[in-house]
Amino acid sequence: MKADKTILRVAVPTPLRRLFDYLPARYIDESRLLPGMRVAVPFGKKKEMIGLIMEIATGSDFPYSKLKRIHRLVDTEPVIDQQQLKLINWASRYYHHPPGEVFFNAVPAWVRQGQTLEKLQEFAWRLTDIGRRLDTAELKRAPRQQQIIKHLGRHELPVTDTALLAAFPGIRPVLDKLVEKGLVEQVVATDNSQTRTLADDIKKLNTEQREATARIIAAIGQHQVFVLDGLTGSGKTEVYMAAITAALEQGLQSLVLLPEIGLTPQIIRRFQERFDCHIAVQHSGLSDRERARDWLAAKQNRAQIILGTRSAVWTPLAKPGLFIADEEHDLSYKQQDGFRYSAKDIMIVRSQQEQVPVVLGSATPSLESLCNIERKKHERLVLSARAGDAKLPEYKLIDIRGKKMHGPLSQVLVDEMQRHLAAKNQVLLFLNRRGYANNLYCHTCGWKASCKSCDLPFTYHKSSNKLVCHHCEKQQRSMTACPECHAELILVGHGTERIEEVLAEQFPDQRIARIDRDTTRKKHAITDLLEQIRNRNIDILIGTQMLAKGHHFPGVTLTAIVDADRGLFSTDFRASERLAQLFMQVSGRSGRGDKPGTVLVQTHNPEHTLFQQLISNGYARYAQTLLQERQQAWLPPYTYMVLLNAEAHNADDCRHFLNKAADELKRISGMSLSVFGPLPALFEKRSGRYRWQLIVQAEDRKQLHNHIDEWLVQLEAMKLSKKIRWSLDVDPMDMA
C-alpha cells in the first residue's frame, strides 16, 4: 500500500496481544487525530467497541482494502497523555499482556464505556451561615449529623462530594436532612488551595521522623525509592503528611496507595482534617461517575491529593510530585487474575518515567524491598520507636499442648482477657479463618463434607446453617447425619463464628464484635464497626486479616493470635515471610495508646524458629535469615520468575499443554532457563476446573522476557491452547 495513508493503531479490549490497524472515518479532519484519543470501531461480530489510539502510522502490514474505518472519534483531545501511554506500553510489554486490556484496566469504567468527560461536573458541600453558628451539642441525638457538621466546620473551603461520601459512607440521607434544616448546602466545586505550611507539620515530628521527611523532601523532582521501615505505631503517616505538605507548597500533586477499601474511609477523614484541599478518591466502592469525576480532577490538576487502592496507581496527574504506597508488603497490591500487575512496581516505573520520589512504607517490608536496599536501588529510612509515649508490646507464647481449652481459647488466654477487661481496656482476638468449623466429619466411616467443584472441605457457617466453600463460594444446606453410614456428624476445627460463641459464654457482660467477610458484606458495615471500636462501644474484637492492616485502636491493650500455627508448614516458599508479616502486623494493634500492650500467641509449636526469632530479634533480623535462605535456594528476589497457569475440566489437558509448552521453551531458550513442572497448583481444583502450573526461572530478567515473547507466539499457535484457559503471571506473589 502507499506510504502516505494515515493508519490508526488502536488498542481494543481483547485477549489478542497486538494493536489493530484502522483507517480514519471519511468525514474526520485527520489533523485532529492524536494518540490517546478514544475511538468507536467495528470489531469482529460486534457492531462497535471503544478503543484507544496508541499510534498514528503511515503504513500497515495489511492491504489497504482490508482495513476498516473507525466509526467516530469520541474525544476532541486526548484523554490519555503521553506519559500514560508510555506507562501502558511498558506494562503491556513487561507483563506480556494485551495492550487493549491494559488500557481498559488503567481507566475508570466511565472512560472505558466511551462516556463524554464533559458530563462530569464536580460538586462540594459547605456549611451555611446558620450551620456555622450552630452549637453542635444541639445535634447530640443525631450523631451522624453532628459528625458531618463538625467535619465541614474544620474546613475553610467546601469539601467535594466524592471525598465526603468516601470518608463517611452512606451519609447521603444525612446530608439531605441537613439541607432540609438549612445547615449545609451544595455548591459547584472550585479549585481548593492548601493553607498549611511545612513548618506546622515539622513541629509535631520526632527526630527520626524529621530526618526521614527531610530526605524525602530533598528528592522531590527526581526518581528515588525510599523504604520507610517503621514499627507499627511509629508515625509513618505523619511522615507521609509532612512530605505531602512540602509537595503542595511546590504546587505538586501526591498519590497515596492503600492496601484495601476497609482502611480508606479512616485515612480519607484523617487527610481531610489535615489538608484543606481537593482530595480525590479512587477505589471500587465508589460509583462509576464518582471514580471518573475524581480521575478527571486529578488529570486536570483540580485535585492535589489522590487516595486509593491498587487501581489508583494509574490515575493521571497533571503535576506529579510524590508517590506513596502504605503497607507496601501487602499482597493486595498484586492483581491475582486477569491483568496480573503489581501496583507497587507500576508506581516505581512511573517514578522513573516522571522523575518523582516513591515512599514504600511498612513495619514489615517485603523481602523484595529489603533486597533492593542491599543492592542500593532503594534507600532505607528507619523509625525505630513508637510515636509519643507508646511502648512496644510484651510477647507471651502459650504452649496449648495438654492445656485446658474452651473451644479454641486456652484458659490462660481467658484469664488474661479477664484481667485486661477488668481494667476497662479492649481486647482483640485474631483468627484468619471465618465460619464456625473447618470440617463436617463422620467419626465412624471417615466421610467429609467436601466441595465437589474444588475437592476441598466445606466450612460450616452456623449463622446460616450452610456449608460454604471458601475457594469457589459454592454453598449448600448443612446436614446432621452421614450420607454414607447415617452416623451423627461431628464438627472439627474453629473459625471466627465459633470464637464468638465461646466468648459469649465466657464473657456474657462484654460487648463483642466479629469483623470478617461475613459480617461486613453490607455496604458501609466495616466503617460502622470500626467507628464503634474507636468510640469504645466494643470490648472484645474478633477479626480476620482485615483487622491486621494499619488500624489504630488506642484502647486495645491485649492482642491474641488464636491459631499461630497456620502457615508454618506450607509448601509455598513465601509462606514464612507472609506469616512473619502477619504476626508482626497483628501484634502491632496492641498498646498503641498510653497503656502498655501484651501479645499472646497460642501455639502447639512454641519452639518453632519463626516465633523464637521474631520475639527475640524482631522482624528485620528474621527477614535477613529468610533472604539468606532464598539466595541459597536460588529463589526470588535473587532470581526472576514467571508462572504459566493452565485450567481445564480434564487434568490431562493441562498436563499435556504444559508439557508441550515446557519443551517449546527449552528449545527456544537453548536450555538457558530453568523450567519446573508441570505441577498441580497448591489448590489443584477450583470451580470444577483442574489447575496446573509451569514455573520458569532465570538469573537475568531481560533474557527471561526476550524468550517469553517468542514463547507466547508458539503457545497461541498450539491446538491445545484453544481447549484450556491459560495465563501468564510475571513476578507471581501467590502460588495457590
Question: If you had to describe this structure to a student in words, what would you say it looks like?
Answer:
The protein has 736 residues and is an alpha/beta fold. Helices cover 32% and strands 23% of the residues. It is built from 21 helices and 34 strands. The strands form 9 sheets. It has a 7-stranded parallel β-sheet with strand order 11-12-10-13-14-9-15, sandwiched between helices. A hairpin with a 4-residue loop joins strand 21 and strand 22. The longest helix has 24 residues, at 609-632. The mean pLDDT is 89.
Summarize the structure.
Helix content is 32%, strand content 23%. It is built from 21 helices and 34 strands.
- What is the approximate shape? globular
How much helix is in the residues? 25-40%
Structural class: alpha/beta
- What is the residue-mean pLDDT, rounded to a whole number? 89
Tally of helical runs: 21
Number of strands: 34
Across the major sheet, the strand order is 11-12-10-13-14-9-15
- Beta-strand portion reads 15-25%
Low-confidence stretches: none
**How is the biggest beta sheet arranged?**
7 strands, parallel
N→C terminal distance? 50 Å
Rg (C-alpha, Å): 28 Å
